[in-house]
Write a structure and sequence with these properties.
The protein is of the alpha/beta class. 36% of the residues lie in helices and 20% in strands. The model has no long low-confidence stretch (mean pLDDT 94).
């Protein structure tokens, strides 16, 4: 039995393939199109998944889509009657619903084939909950999805038990923590879809001086849910433009002039960041956490279980995630590698799997390596075809087939302060580089952030870089001890360790860690172990292999990024390419 899972006609469009209860492949469309957060029908991701599974489109038996047109219709009707939104807004939403509902027809049109697959529409937040609980190793868990919007809801509270996951409460449109965070991201001067992580990175540089104003914007309710003060928002009445098809997603201005009256002028993207903007960012994060933890306490009161399955786009807020054990009764948490809408592809597919099989066995995802891989033979042919260009760039190529030697040479380069591109195995699923499509550096060097930003990343100086740490060393270096395989939590670095690794310690003493397991990524574990043998430091600085573009997918993109930037070393499979000093 096979199931194709899709997140289509929304940001971070993606596809996955499950065959006989196992995840064969999963990838976001942006990696193939080279357009960040690409929205539309993910045909390239579908093609990859089918190739990996050895299937044609016509052989698919089930298609799962993480949208369910028609769900919550009574809520929609009540909203229209009470708010009387701009007719163009409603037309826009109807078009988006229609696109999601006709994905099978769109596939038939795009591929020119007739499909026999049964189509399953899975409610958006149910797919989110399934993307966490049904791939965890929990037999039961409290479940929470916090998002922008999907199927007329922004938040879902539920529980999972055995092979089932259910929703028992929702927060409906127009109230949304995702919209709140996005609107404030725009206000601070970060206009692009997905820029919310910049606010999270900026927040530690400020003080929560505007928290009372934020409490005027977001009102936490006595039952633990929340409501937006809608006079500060446009998304529910005005024709806020959304672009969701065959493009990088774009979202129009979400806030009203009354927000400017409350907080003062909004920052333009070209204007300098002032302390006021940092204080607003800190206040936004503090307000999000206030509402988020109110939700979690309400969830625990309803489902007093030790385990939490957390998902939705807001679950990408790794700062808040890192405080769950400190501020709630939950003892163990599972966050999927793709907590946002891309993850709905796996969520929808696993939910369908749970509904159409009698098996008690569940899919368990403890690693994120489900994307394309490339053999040394393929890489060798690429390097041969680009040999002259590589030589002209002053680079030498070595092939090192001994893994121990490859790791030791690479670790030595990192310890010498070189910037290393590391391209190995299958591409990661989700937004984080987890040691297969990574740029690696020495975390001990105070100036490494500046070097990286100058040579390659060309990004805002306030944004932190993450540490990838051997799993067995977490307790020694961080104040909390937990498994963080998908780089989704921020912990405080132990004070005595902070001076040793300044390049990966944020201004507030924290680090967004990634725990590396010998069982799931033996080569990356061996590389960090080699670095530890040289330096006594069991972690490396790890950032995504890209330069203001989606993370590289193919070796061609990795080589191109290496050659056009000032990266020092590129390790492509067993090939070690170094610039001559």
């Amino acid at each position: 039995m096979n199931i194709l899972g899709l997140n289509a006609y929304h940001g971070d469009s993606a596809a996955c393939l499950i065959v006989d209860g196992k995840l064969v492949a999963a990838a976001e469309e942006e990696r193939f199109r080279r357009i960040k957060h690409w929205a539309g029908l993910p045909t390239n991701a579908i093609d990859y998944c089918l190739r990996e599974g050895g299937l044609s489109l016509g052989e698919l038996e089930h298609t799962a889509i993480n949208r369910k047109p028609g769900v919550n219709n009574w809520r929609r009707l009540a909203f229209v009657l009470t708010h009387r939104p701009d007719p163009r807004l409603m037309l826009q939403k109807l078009r988006n619903i229609r696109s999601a509902s006709s994905a099978n027809e769109a596939l038939e049109k795009a591929y020119g084939v007739s499909l026999k697959a049964e189509v399953h529409h899975v409610e958006h937040h149910l797919a989110h909950l399934a993307s966490a609980f049904l791939v965890s190793d929990f037999q039961e868990a409290a479940c929470l999805s916090v998002d922008g919007f999907g199927d007329f809801a922004s938040t879902a509270i539920g529980f999972g038990h055995g092979n089932e996951v259910k929703i028992d409460n929702r927060v409906y449109f127009p109230h949304s923590l995702g919209i709140f965070y996005s609107a404030m991201t725009q206000f601070i001067g970060f206009p692009h879809f997905g820029d919310e992580y910049k606010v999270m990175g900026l927040a530690p540089y400020g003080q929560p001086k505007y928290l009372e104003a934020m409490r005027e914007i977001v009102r936490v309710q006595t039952d633990g849910t929340f409501k937006l003060n809608l006079k500060y928002f446009r998304h529910h009445t005005d024709n806020v433009s959304y672009s969701w098809n065959n493009c990088a997603p774009e979202v129009g201005t979400l806030y009203t002039d009354q927000l400017i009256e409350l907080l003062g002028p909004a920052r333009k993207p070209t204007e300098p960041l002032e302390q006021k903007h940092k204080d607003i960012a800190r206040s936004v994060q503090a307000m999000y956490e206030e509402a988020f933890f109110a939700l979690l306490h309400a969830l625990y009161a309803r489902h007093p279980l030790p385990n939490l399955a957390l998902s939705g786009g807001c679950a990408m807020n790794s700062v808040a995630n890192g405080k769950v054990y400190l501020r709630t009764p939950f003892k163990k948490m599972y966050l999927p590698a793709a907590a946002g809408d891309a993850g709905g592809a796996i969520g929808g597919a696993t939910y369908v799997l749970s509904q159409i099989t009698n098996s008690k066995t569940r899919l368990h995802l403890d690693s994120a390596y489900s994307g394309p891989a490339f053999s040394d033979e393929e890489i060798g042919r690429l390097l041969e075809s680009k040999k002259q260009e590589i030589r002209n760039a002053g680079c030498q190529i070595l092939r090192i087939d001994n893994e121990k030697e490859l790791c030791e040479r690479t670790a030595t380069a990192i310890a010498e302060g070189k910037v290393v591109g590391w391209f190995q195995g299958r591409m990661e699923w989700g937004p984080r580089a987890l040691g297969n499509r990574s740029i690696l550096c020495d975390p001990r060097r105070q100036n490494m952030k500046e070097i990286l930003n100058t040579k390659i990343k060309r990004r805002e100086s306030f944004r932190p870089f993450a540490p990838s740490i051997l799993r067995e060393s977490v307790a020694e270096w961080f104040e909390q001890e937990d498994d963080v395989p998908f780089m989704m939590e921020v912990f405080q670095v132990r004070p005595k360790k902070r001076p040793l690794i300044p390049a990966v310690v944020h201004v507030d003493g924290s680090g967004r860690l990634h725990t590396v397991h010998r069982e799931t990524n033996p080569l990356f574990h061996a590389l960090i172990s080699s670095f530890r043998a040289l330096t006594s430091v069991p972690l490396v600085l790890n950032t995504s292999f890209n330069e203001n573009e989606p993370v590289v997918c193919r070796p061609e993109e990795a080589l191109d990024c290496f050659l056009r930037t000032k990266m020092d070393v590129l390790v492509l499979g067993n090939f070690y390419i170094a610039r001559e000093s």
